[in-house]
Write a structure and sequence with these properties.
single chain; about 160 residues; alpha+beta; Aminopeptidase; four-stranded antiparallel sheet; 4 helices; about 30% strand; binds coenzyme A
Length: about 160
Amino acid sequence: MTIREIKSNEHGELENFLYEAIYIPDGQSKPPRKIIECPELQVYIKDFGTRDSDICFVAEVDGKIIGACWSRIMNDYGHIDDETPSLALSVLKNFRRKGIATALMKKILSHLAEKNFKQVSLSVQKENSAAVNLYRKLNFEIVDERGEEFLMTKNLEGKKF
Ligand SMILES: CC(C)(COP(=O)(O)OP(=O)(O)OC[C@H]1O[C@@H](n2cnc3c(N)ncnc32)[C@H](O)[C@@H]1OP(=O)(O)O)[C@@H](O)C(=O)NCCC(=O)NCCS
């Protein structure tokens, strides 16, 4: 497994990872794929690569991208202010629980810290215990509760990952 930055000709793959990042509670079926076309989700990927804060690391296995973590300053569910990138993350089902999300997150956090971003934020469904556990392990803090979601941040100043 290799963790590397996404290439510009791979930005289209973010559609898959955006779809995979949608939390599906146990027992519920997946929404139709065209859900990613709604404006609330398009903010995560539209014209990706055109902003300074557009950074994406992918995990590759046997030449196939199986996980992605990306940042962007955007008006998404996890927005805090116009200096703070929000994060999105997903790993394909067959590759979960192998430390891949942790490796992707460490890589992007370290990269964002090097680029002098002071903090990152994200929003996560309270029920999404896999993701909440992962973010807690990475020392994210819950700074707000918005309905069914936690808003979490992590300070990047002077940190090594
Ligand atoms: C959340 C997600 C990205 C985790 O990816 P992953 O590669 O499986 O995560 P890791 O293997 O790095 O797990 C790190 C830690 O997270 C927690 N965790 C991960 N999956 C978990 C699960 N199913 N149940 C409980 N805790 C879990 C554990 O604390 C784990 O550490 P451990 O394996 O030593 O116990 C993955 O489950 C996923 O893509 N889910 C769907 C999309 C999603 O929810 N994205 C986040 C939206 S905010």
